[in-house]
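debug: dumping io for the single-chain case to check the tokenizer round-trip. Nothing else runs in this session.
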Amino acid sequence: MKKVIFAEFGGPEVLQLLDAAEPHAGPGQVRITVRAAGVNPVDWRVREGQILGAHPTELPSGIGLDAAGVVDEVGEGVEGVEVGDHVFGEGSSTYAEFAVLSAWARMPEGLTFEEAAGYPSVVETALRVIREVGVRPAQTLLVSGASGGVGSAVLQIARERGITVIGTAGAPNQDYLRGLGALPTTYCEGWVERVRGLGQVDAALDLAGSGVIRELIELTGDPGKVVSIADLGAPELGARFSGVAGSVPEALAEAVDLLSRSKLHIPVEKTYTLAEAAAAHIDSQAGHTRGRRVVVV
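debug: decoded output
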């Protein structure tokens, strides 16, 4: 099978599309024929060799966590899923023609493989950081870097829970944020005062890692009410860095519920082939995403 592999840490150029042995489903796992794989910032962070405790890496390594596809092997002890089922979930080395998933759910009706591949890690992360930052209904949450996959999920889940959301993003994405129910503003000069003009901020999330932790603490008045998924230096200022996943099966179940009730929709901004994995990482790392980026197999 074809699989994207890197043999050394580095830039996107270390990614290679090579022939590799097929993986097989072990106990509690399923194998899928991959139709699409989600592109997440954690992918290029792992490729660069950043120290991420939840994702230890032995070289050479595959890349990718999220995928959607068709079940073609069911591991020992697995119930409730059969060969031929369409599923989406989280596993390892998903930029490949076959991948093993350790957590999965059946795809809701009407969802394409490309759309489904964009949800697993994104929804888990959104649910986790909303919980960790401790924001409650009728309070206001500020989301820095709100137009990407996690931001899109946070805005919709928070609004569903009765939380007011202020979102920062580039000028071209202001209408997109407004459509998701957020009070939008740009992140260019003067953004702190513009946020203050939109209301009191009770909690804040940094999703882009753009060096705004001090400002988020200033706006909330409490470093304990600031959580980042992108700035490893956040704890030095008293804020929290969140990098260890919670329950993916629970997140997938909530994603299915939200999707089935039309309460969650994250558009796929761009698709790539396996051979274009490096380009996908370059674009992901550049930011300014509206929704998700997906590798189509």
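debug: round-trip ok. The longest strand covers residues 30-39.
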